[in-house]
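## Example pair
The file below holds two records. Each record gives the amino-acid sequence first, followed by its structure token line.
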Amino acid sequence: MKKRALISVSDKTGILDFAKGLIAHGYEIVSTGGTYELLKVEGAINISEVTGFPEIMDGRVKTLHPAIHGGILAVRDNPTHMETLATHKINTIDIVVVNLYPFKETIQKAGATEEEIIENIDIGGPSMLRSAAKNHASVAVVVDPADYENILSEISQGGVKTETKKALAAKAFRHTAAYDALIAAYFTKDPYPEKLTLTYEIKQPLRYGENPHQKSALYSDPIQGDTIIAAKQLHGKELSYNNIADADVTLSMVKEFVMPAAVAVKHQNPCGVGIGENIAEAYSRAYKADPVSIFGGIVALNREVDKPCAQQLNEVFLEIIIAPSFSEEALAILTKKKNLRLLQIDMSQKPEKAEQKISEVSGGLLIQEKDTASFDDATLTFPTNRKPTEDELKTAKFAWTCVKYVKSNGILIARDNMTVGIGPGQTNRVGAAKIAISDAGERTRGAVLASDAFFPMPDTVELAAKAGIEVIIQTGGSVKDNDSIEACNKHNIAMIFTGIRHFKH
């Protein structure tokens, strides 16, 4: 039998040279549609000549035929299979080169119609890939143009190696699985279906994970919006696992603010947040919030970094600066530090559907909607005798927006459009309050204290009162709310209940 390769690709990168290489090694090329139009000048034959049947239904049916799948699936050392091929005059197909209709690109295209999207669901392609991958002992299945060169090299040395065919089959199954997962995700409206299929694409291998002894890699959602993974790196060395994890939190947090804002994060906890009339003023406040902890941190800003802001940023060692843009003057200043990563990302886009947070646990996944609740979603109540002033309420809003990103149990103290003390990740709320108050020092006088959840005891109020806190904003809803309210009344503290909890584990 003739050596035969079937080629039908949407991504035609390198396909002409690959086909010429196969022909030079004695392969006959069978092709379809647009691929045939490209390769026919090299002597390729149309698939209809093999099947004896024309493409029908606007090309929907062309490869689903025994002359194709028999030639792919026949086990070469099975006499019955080979006799069947001979009886029906079917030639074996030794190489299948297929990549699928551009479904992902179609759903990403502005203005794509439902009809157009459905027409870009490939049927024959996945069928051929699965057939070839199943019979990988005899058939080399190719989905990635990056493999063309190696395959030609092995053919020139006697044939595609057995281990290569097996690796190509695994890649083909991953390719079709990801393709089907994307289609399933597009049609699935239930956020928690009976079966969950997820697909991610390799973005880059990473040097190591959280620690040098841990291997890691970064994968991206094929349909991504203005996420940290979509950021354009303008300068600096390669991002690490911890960089990316911290940068994700920093970006999410700075996007909470409408007015100019700057957020500094260390180990996925904010260490300084500031807002101002301009971005330089906002950053100045974020820095002054905790000039010690910001060292080696990640800073995100929601306005273009200009020269005054860049001059301040340049005065401290930072790992990453994230912003929607950088002025030429700012870049000239910041790029003098060769290792400083500068990430640019559009922060104006909003996700079309509710984002989910996925956490791995032994044996499974925990999935939930991301905590997108904002101050505007809260139903505020004012249970104490003293009510907050208008300015105190603005500071409370700022503080409560920030404490949402502090690991539980979390306490945050704010004043003058900046955080002044943050107590994250403690096993009790009093411990978190002690850390925040200690960090703030004398800046607690007249400040606002925000808690990620309710007070089960009035002890946090007593600590706040000793520190000179004037306003407390918390969830409310404890069976001992009255104890905390009475403690606030005793010390003339205004308390605000939001009715929304911000646990962050």
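Second record, same layout:
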Amino acid sequence: MSRAICLFAGSFDPVTNGHLSLIRRAASRFDKVFVAVMRNPAKQGAFTVGERLAMLAEVCAPYGNVRVLAGEGLTAALAAQLNANVLLRGVRGMQDLESELTMARVNRRLNPGLETIFLPPEEGCEDVSSSLVRELASLGADFSAYVPPQVRDRIVNKYSKGGSGNG
């Protein structure tokens, strides 16, 4: 695979082992990897954008070619601003693949030089999602197998202060 500038954009609410697996794999394959916490005004996250950025910065610290930032608007436009020519997307199953293929086509129309690369989850990350982690945490269940150890306590603290986690 040729070296390129990669953008991995998402909500990361919170960052999971699945996200970290994709970041680690991208860091070994691309010259530069941007990890963008995208703001969606239509959604209220459990964690603020600042909290998500802090968690990502901590788990991405070992990777010198990974930069964490906040983004908003269209992912294709952010990729153009960053001179990224590759979008990284994780796909856990057919439902993810169908929606991601649609987004890849739209992003390519908006930014013709942008390619989307799909990576399947590593073993143990097949069912990991931020929404699963939030649900488990809100119900007091053990979610520690799904998140990096550095963020576990932040999640516990968020949900122990009121249960909903709304940031």
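Notes on the second record: The CA atoms of residues 13 and 131 lie 8 Å apart. The chain has a mean pLDDT of 90.
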